Amino acid sequence: MAAERLQFHEMGLDDRLLKAVADLGWSQPTLIQEKAIPLALEGKDLLARARTGSGKTAAYAVPVVQRILASKQSVREQDVRALILVPTKELGHQVQAMMRQLTAFCSRDVRVADISGKADLSAQRPILMEKPDVVVGTPSRVLAHLNAQNLVLHSSLEMLVVDEADLLFSFGFEADLKNLLCHLPKIYQSFLMSATLTEDVQALKELLLHNPVILKLQGSQLPDSSQLQQYSIKCEEEDKFLLIYTLLKLRLVQGKTLVFVAAVDRCYRLKLFLEQFGIPACVLNSELPVQSRCHIITQFNQGFYDYIIASDEHSLADPTAAPQTTAGKGKKTMERGGKAKDKEYGVSRGVDFQNVANVINFDFPTTVESYIHRVGRTARADNPGTALSFISHTELALLSEVEEALTGDNSDSVLKPYEFKMEEIEGFRYRCRDAMRSVTKQAVREARLKEVKQELLNSEKLKTYFDDNPRDLQLLRHDKDLHPAVVKPHLKNVPEYLIPEMLRGVVNPLSSRRRRKRKEKTKPQGLVKTSFKKNDQGRNPLKSFKYTGGRNRKGKAGQS
Ligand SMILES: Nc1ncnc2c1ncn2[C@@H]1O[C@H](COP(=O)(O)OP(=O)(O)OP(=O)(O)O)[C@@H](O)[C@H]1O
């Protein structure tokens, strides 16, 4: 018989922490939390590998808060006791948000500061002078503050966390991290958290951990097929555009969707393309200011947007893509064309996009790790999710690599073919080509420039005005049309004759305005197949539609 899972209230946690956990709606710890929290409270060093979305943040955040609360029972000077290192600013923002939720009932006793996001060292100095109990930051930023003596850790630090540990080296933080260690005391407790165990994590383990307990949970790096369904479909460049247009316009993809592309330009190309059909989408990439990026993610999580087109530029296969940052130096690099890109950017790594129903790899990722982390943005915690990868002939070898890595000893392939009859949507090809033609290189360049300018303005507003007027945050949208000049009004509507016969009466292409008004909770989630058979066993084929996403949030079978 399976042993009962240890509950939060059986872990000896402070009541205020238990109340915060209850407020978050967490009825029981996840597996990694159940294993890691008691060990961490015993003072053990931990190396924890658990799949994406399995709750690793709270696995270290809960013991960090608990230990600080416990130490505050004896009168002690206010000091920085915990340092949490993250590879990206987005993650810093998110970790701080999670720490704030966990300390909601003890915010006076446990103060948390995220220093990863802001550019100006001197602006952050006063925050650090107050010696927050927990500091969250990227290694380069933390080191810069240590060098400037805004932050002193050598006598006070009790806990060090390295989140997304496998990324730190590939983001070029190796030198910073090694320098940073010279500023730490001899003895402290360390936690290394990662979804994948790479050579970099092994190297970090040697560097940071003393006799660690190694928690390597769940064989698979992604949830199994009862929670996450993975599909691939072969299609070349033009078909990729045709397919995404019909999937989104006919609402064959339902629920919040993250679309990954290979480069910043492709974000705008796809956004401008979809714009012409009245399909609004936000773009997320390393050129946008960090405030805008975090705001887009927050609003997406709040249900403001259905679609984000993200470029995932940090290829782990290409270490040269990430610079060797050193503290105090700028972290922006110049791309061809002179645009500044933020190397402390990461969308697919660790960012907790909530209730994402689908991940679409419009362009296939270049490494297995990247596939795992992109797809890991859906099916998080106990939620179901679907991943669909478009594969062109040049991406076939990468698909095989991913297949091989995920299938392991199992003979069944993890990525099933997405049963979608491309011939059913042939009628849309003319419109698709028309729209593709409008998205010229010039239009992409202009849109890219316009968006960056716009977001820089937004970012200033976000920094100052919205701090005092949080309600007005909701008025600021990031999915507006970027190039109204190329939008052809007739493309926004889908005439009935174009809808595949089988789908008529089933799909309901909505205008963008109506789409925005739909209530998040009532939306079905997942992907619809068009592979049904006509008059299958005498039943009306329209009624035999299946969502391959399969379940709504309560886990019931979806049916249209
Ligand atoms: N005990 C719990 N019960 C229910 N939901 C939880 C629990 N713990 C965490 N979650 C939720 O699960 C989601 C994923 O958590 P988290 O971001 O910590 O995952 P992760 O393992 O760090 O993922 P990744 O490897 O992608 O960074 C979050 O939305 C979080 O709020």
UniProtKB/TrEMBL annotation:
Supply one GO CC term from the record.
nucleolus
**Which Pfam family, any one of them, does this sequence belong to?**
DEAD
Q: Which residues form the DEAD-box RNA helicase Q domain?
A: 6-34
Name of the protein described by the UniProt record: Probable ATP-dependent RNA helicase DDX56
Keywords, sorted A to Z: ATP-binding, Helicase, Hydrolase, Nucleotide-binding, Nucleus, Ribosome biogenesis, RNA-binding, rRNA processing
Q: Where is the Helicase C-terminal domain?
A: 227-426
Q: Where in the cell is it found?
A: Nucleus, Nucleolus
* GO biological process terms, semicolon-separated: rRNA processing
**InterPro entries in alphabetical order:** DEAD/DEAH_box_helicase_dom (IPR011545), DEAD_box_RNA_helicase (IPR050079), Helicase_ATP-bd (IPR014001), Helicase_C-like (IPR001650), P-loop_NTPase (IPR027417), RNA_helicase_DEAD_Q_motif (IPR014014)
Q: Where is this region: Disordered?
A: 319-339, 509-560
What is the reaction catalyzed? ATP + H2O = ADP + phosphate + H(+)
Which parts of the sequence belong to the Helicase ATP-binding domain?
37-215
PROSITE patterns (alphabetical): HELICASE_ATP_BIND_1, HELICASE_CTER, Q_MOTIF
In chain numbering, motif Q motif lies across: 6-34
Name the residue ranges with Basic residues bias.
512-521, 551-560
Molecular function, one GO term: RNA helicase activity
Q: Which family does it belong to?
A: Belongs to the DEAD box helicase family. DDX56/DBP9 subfamily.
Quaternary assembly: May form homooligomeric complexes. Interacts with IRF3. Interacts with OCT4 and POU5F1.
Q: Which SUPFAM superfamilies match?
A: P-loop containing nucleoside triphosphate hydrolases (SSF52540)
Instruction: Give the EC number(s) under which this enzyme is classified.
Output: 3.6.4.13
Function, in words: Nucleolar RNA helicase that plays a role in various biological processes including innate immunity, ribosome biogenesis or nucleolus organization. Plays an essential role in maintaining nucleolar integrity in planarian stem cells. Maintains embryonic stem cells proliferation by conventional regulation of ribosome assembly and interaction with OCT4 and POU5F1 complex. Regulates antiviral innate immunity by inhibiting the virus-triggered signaling nuclear translocation of IRF3. Mechanistically, acts by disrupting the interaction between IRF3 and importin IPO5.
